[in-house]
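<amino_acid_chain>
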Amino acid sequence: MSTTQAPAQTPAVPEAPRAKRRGSAWDTALVTVLSFVTALVISAILIAISDQQTRSSFKYFGHYPGDTFRFAWSAIWHTYQALFYGAIFNPHTAGNGTLAGYLGPISETLTDATPLIAGGLAVGLAFRAGLFNIGGQGQIILGAIFAGFVGFHWHMPVVIHLIVAILAGVLGGALWGGLSGFLKAKTGAHEVITTIMLNYVAVNLLGYLLSVKGFQAPPYGQAISNPVDHNATLPLLLGGSLRVHLGLILSLAAAAFVWWLLRYSRLGFRLRAVGANPFAAKTAGMHVENSYVVVMLLSGALCGLAGVSQVLGTNPQITGDIDAGIGFDAITVALLGRANPVGTVFAGLLFGALHAGGPMMQQYAPIELVQVIQSLIVLFIAAPAVIRAIFRLKTSGASVGAELAKGWNG
């Protein structure tokens, strides 16, 4: 009698690695949130100390301790409330019933976040290839120069003019970033040194151009460029009363592209392999030097996109401070987002909110406190062991630098 054998079952794919990655992602998110909360708590203490009424109440704390706590709570509450009103929603302006009244604060947050997202993506992408792009300032300036020149010097139909200006800005940033990558690949020059030096070159180049007729706006008495033609400006997304523009969509599209590049493309795999271990990558047959050039071209292009959003969206005339410190803030955004495209978007939105709400905070606390909050967030993000010790988290973790060096695995 013949017997039939049951077909051999295919062994199941072990779930441990997937579960481990999922647990690691949640663990990283938890540490990030706790870092932010801890920074806010410490900043609240600084807000209370900087309040005049709270300091005055220290003199009679032994007799009326309630005054000290009441004044401190009032200062903290009103400062953070002002931050919320300036960055998210202000019920006082919403009462007028206009779109600007309802969406004005969130529009300012999105506007400020737009170049920060693009710049953070640039720094994070370079991190993944083992490079530290500290030249965002110069790359943003070159992107703004290229985009602005095309915007006010060339005259084309509306859609074509905008597309060409955007591409010119991206090209300008890519060339400036690619120059550092080329020097790294051909001469071994460290990218931190070359990008810093190129920042100075870009700043002085801009200063020169702002004194040249044809670039400088008439009557040639101020260091400001000609205004960009209306055909080349980024369209506003929510009407003329709100500043948020198409650059936000471009930055989000850039984040999606970087996410796809790192996760699914061969180039992304090569860049991550070079960033994790360039010697092993070279042994495996990868051209490490070419990877340095490519990643700096892409990183510079993303910074150029930040410059595009500045000159074609927010500031239609180029000035000496067109970069607005975005090149260095982008480093903070990339660190906070763990050099992950999705995390970088949220980090950019957070810092956009801090920038947008900062002016309103000045009614109750010094504007420097916004920078203190940002610095504390970065401090705790960069040292997760401190957060784990404070909250007694069991899972051990490395510093943010060590995590970035491992490469992005999803």
User: Anything to note?
Assistant: The radius of gyration is 25 Å. The longest helix spans residues 16-50. The mean pLDDT is 86.
